[in-house]
């Protein structure tokens, strides 16, 4: 939530900041602003409600050469979407941008007697005023006094008006990456803003202060001693964070799924079986556990639901999936024989991180499935299985979901082998089935025009229902989430057998029902439920395997997916459900990549 960037160096800072903000905009897009040192060596601020494009217009009037500045794109937490609440915030000699939440801002307001002085409703302005009150002309020393006063999550970029050309940055929990290049020093919420300038970067260590000048970037610990953080290298390039001819990132990312799957699976296959030795994940964690707790949010949690539906019957140990924001407060039964599997694309979701920390505290081994290298969740986990989807920019997760599933399927297979629930021959067959899903996904992507056409009857409807049993139910959850978040059609998923216990009251003439019936074992049961909704007038879109016998008139539309083993149908289905949501949003003329009220990376509770 919120994207921040700072740059000082020989390049035109206005472009670096605005281009960086465009890359970071998926993190929040309520309002945007920049602050910079002008030719007069004074700090100037420009900010506006709305997206980065509007800020860009506002900045068109800046004629002078700028070489040092900071920029922010906001997802409102404290205070509404107004120009006053937009960042940067200024107090005396301090100009600040912030990503995160300062939880004790009330206390700080009282302690520093700020009530009468505040112009905005933001916690950030409180932080800026506190820092200004502490500021004695020495930025590093003042920041050392400032940091212990703060409770909450934050990453800040700060200009001190009496230190032109310098930027200071610090963080706790909220992400911040930095790089010093021959074109100056740059810091940002994530790598997408850095990669046009460099592939080498550092994750700013928590509770450390970064001092950036055009010639150097230095990191200081709490005693003011300089430290050398580890330099990492990103393995994707600028193209990966561009639309490359696609009208939206979401469509591009849907198309990238087959490659993302290959990148995630193939390097980890040895003689046809999953091999995590390069990832440093020992078999012991799979052998020793007596229960598995999967924790994640949103789409990542839905991937966990699919994994659970396969894991428990196969491994014969309890597997529970929890929404991370609930897990923290439900006093979970976790002990040293628990394997906690934490799933997160961004690796920064605050609730998931808190669940990870709690699991570790209770003695569990934590294995995370993460897409962003070096992210907080990855760094704090005992073991990490990286998915290799590359950057996911569209707010609606697509390729990250598929590769999370791929990674989880590999974990299932490895675990079944280690625990003697699969022979090597079974394991090879399982992995071969997993690889077979890649052409199946490709074939569904190629049929996107067909899906666009069948979505038309949905777009003017206020509601839609997704139904399925067992694994199909787990897939439905993701289909409903995808549709509602980008098309704003109210959509809910139900276990098909559960409908008649209440929800069927909502099924009336032409109400859309997307029915998933891809599990051979329970196909006829699901079809009975389809008949029930059809009998009440529903407009039924049925998704079934190629060879499934579907009676004439049962559904208004039937989408056939390739004949795969039941466990693997999720992959082509994911593509179909993503395309349904994509075209519904597109046909309604909505902002597909940046739906209202959302942000890509949820770093506030
Ligand atoms: C929905 C979506 C979200 C995320 C959720 C978790 O399309 O993207 O539901 O899946 O916010 O995010 P990560 O995986 O970054 O922890």
Automatic annotation (TrEMBL):
Residues 281-421, 454-595 form the SIS domain. The keyword Repeat applies. CDD domains: GFAT (cd00714), SIS_GlmS_GlmD_1 (cd05008), SIS_GlmS_GlmD_2 (cd05009). This is Glutamine--fructose-6-phosphate aminotransferase [isomerizing]. GO terms for biological process: fructose 6-phosphate metabolic process; protein N-linked glycosylation; UDP-N-acetylglucosamine metabolic process. It comes from the Bacteria. GO terms for cellular component: cytosol. It holds the Pfam family SIS. InterPro entries: GATase_2_dom (IPR017932), GFAT (IPR005855), GFAT_N (IPR047084), GlmS/AgaS_SIS (IPR035466), GlmS/FrlB_SIS (IPR035490), Ntn_hydrolases_N (IPR029055), SIS_dom (IPR001347), SIS_dom_sf (IPR046348). GO terms for molecular function: carbohydrate derivative binding; glutamine-fructose-6-phosphate transaminase (isomerizing) activity. Keywords: Aminotransferase, Glutamine amidotransferase, Repeat, Transferase. It is an enzyme of class 2 (transferase). It catalyses: D-fructose 6-phosphate + L-glutamine = D-glucosamine 6-phosphate + L-glutamate. It comes from Candidatus Lachnoclostridium stercoripullorum.
């Amino acid at each position: 939530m919120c994207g921040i960037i700072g740059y000082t160096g020989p390049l035109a800072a206005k472009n670096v900041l605005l281009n960086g903000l465009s890359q970071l905009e998926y993190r929040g897009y309520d309002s945007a602003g920049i602050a910079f040192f002008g030719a007069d060596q004074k700090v100037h601020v420009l900010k506006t409600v709305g997206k980065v494009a509007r800020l860009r217009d506002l900045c068109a009037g800046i004629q002078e050469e700028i070489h040092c500045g900071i920029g922010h794109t906001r997802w409102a937490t404290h205070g509404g979407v107004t120009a006053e609440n937009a960042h940067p915030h200024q107090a005396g000699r301090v100009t600040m941008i912030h990503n995160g939440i300062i939880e004790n801002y009330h206390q700080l307001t009282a302690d520093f007697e700020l009530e009468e002085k505040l112009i905005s409703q933001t916690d950030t302005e409180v932080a800026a005023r506190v820092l200004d009150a502490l500021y004695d002309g020495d930025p590093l020393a003042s920041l050392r006094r400032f940091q212990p006063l703060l409770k909450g999550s934050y990453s800040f970029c700060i200009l001190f008006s009496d230190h032109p050309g310098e930027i200071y940055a610090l963080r706790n929990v909220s992400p911040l990456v930095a790089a010093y290049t021959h074109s100056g020093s740059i810091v940002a919420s994530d790598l997408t803003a850095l990669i046009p300038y460099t592939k080498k970067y550092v994750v700013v260590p928590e509770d450390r202060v970064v001092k950036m000048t055009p010639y150097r970037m230095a990191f200081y610990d709490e005693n003011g001693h300089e430290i050398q953080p580890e330099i990492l290298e990103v393995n994707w390039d600028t193209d990966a964070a561009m639309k490359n001819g696609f009208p939206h990132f979401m469509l591009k990312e849907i198309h990238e799924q087959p490659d993302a799957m290959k990148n995630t699976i193939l390097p980890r296959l040895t003689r046809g079986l999953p091999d995590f030795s390069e990832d440093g994940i020992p078999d012991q964690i799979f052998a020793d556990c007596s229960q598995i707790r999967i924790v994640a949010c949103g789409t990542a949690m839905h991937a966990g639901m699919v994994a659970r539906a396969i894991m428990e019957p196969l491994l014969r140990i309890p597997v529970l999936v929890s929404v991370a924001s609930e897990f923290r407060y439900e006093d979970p039964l976790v002990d040293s024989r628990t394997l906690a599997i934490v799933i997160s694309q961004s690796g920064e979701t605050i609730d998931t991180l808190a669940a990870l920390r709690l699991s570790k505290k209770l003695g569990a081994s934590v294995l995370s499935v993460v897409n962003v290298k070096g992210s907080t969740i990855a760094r704090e986990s005992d073991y990490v299985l990286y998915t290799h989807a590359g950057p996911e920019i569209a707010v609606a997760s697509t390729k990250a979901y598929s590769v999370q599933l791929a990674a989880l399927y590999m974990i299932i297979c490895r675990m079944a082998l280690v625990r003697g629930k699969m022979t090597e021959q079974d394991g090879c067959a399982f992995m071969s089935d997993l690889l077979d899903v890649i052409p199946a996904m490709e074939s569904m992507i190629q049929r996107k025009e067909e899906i666009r056409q069948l979505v038309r009857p949905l777009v003017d409807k206020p509601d839609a229902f997704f139904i399925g049993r067992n694994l199909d139910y787990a897939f439905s959850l993701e289909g409903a989430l995808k549709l509602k978040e980008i098309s704003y059609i109210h959509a809910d998923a139900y276990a098909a057998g559960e409908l008649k216990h209440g929800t069927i009251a909502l099924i009336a003439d032409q109400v859309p029902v997307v029915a998933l019936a891809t599990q051979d074992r329970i196909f006829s049961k699901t079809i009975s439920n389809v008949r029930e909704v059809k009998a009440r007038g529903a407009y039924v879109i049925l998704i079934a395997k190629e060879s499934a016998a579907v009676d004439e008139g049962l559904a208004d539309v039937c989408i056939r997916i390739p004949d795969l083993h039941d466990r693997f149908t999720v992959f082509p289905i994911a593509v179909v459900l993503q395309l349904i949501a994509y075209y519904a949003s597109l046909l309604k003329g909505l902002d597909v990549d940046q739906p209202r009220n959302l942000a890509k990376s949820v770093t506030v509770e």
